[in-house]
């Protein structure tokens, strides 16, 4: 079935009806900006165990989020993807995300620059020492 009109030329009510009918019958009618998203989602899902985690981590980082919040979201998804008895360790999840990005650079463009953050150890801040010069019980 070929549409003779451009998708933007169809009034929004008819467009919504077409999308609704298409999704109900199993056809997908991708909007121009959605075609890449659908392809990226499919490629990320096929990128192995770390694909979904990599997709989340890379999307959040390129959207301006900091490492920790991006990592927390990606790790939560990654450890739930496994059907094994034990959950995925943070170190293994970082490796899985890295493998997915390195094996599919076209799916995760510009994400390579964030991969180093997955392997940096968080700095342990020293505990605040009590102020000197005060009274002591001892």
Describe the structure.
It is a single chain. This protein is an all-alpha fold. The protein has a domain at about 50-120. It contains 5 helices and no strands. The protein has helices spanning about 10-25, 35-45, 50-60, 65-80, 90-105. The radius of gyration is 23 Å and the shape is globular. Residues about 15-35 have low confidence and may be disordered.
Give the topology:
Elements: H1 12-24, H2 34-45, H3 51-62, H4 67-81, H5 90-103
> Helix share of residues?
40-55%
Estimated radius of gyration? 23 Å
Which residue ranges are poorly predicted, with pLDDT under 50 across at least 5 consecutive positions? 16-36
Major beta-sheet overview: none
Broad structural category? mainly alpha
Number of helical segments with 4 or more residues: 5
What is the β-strand count?
0
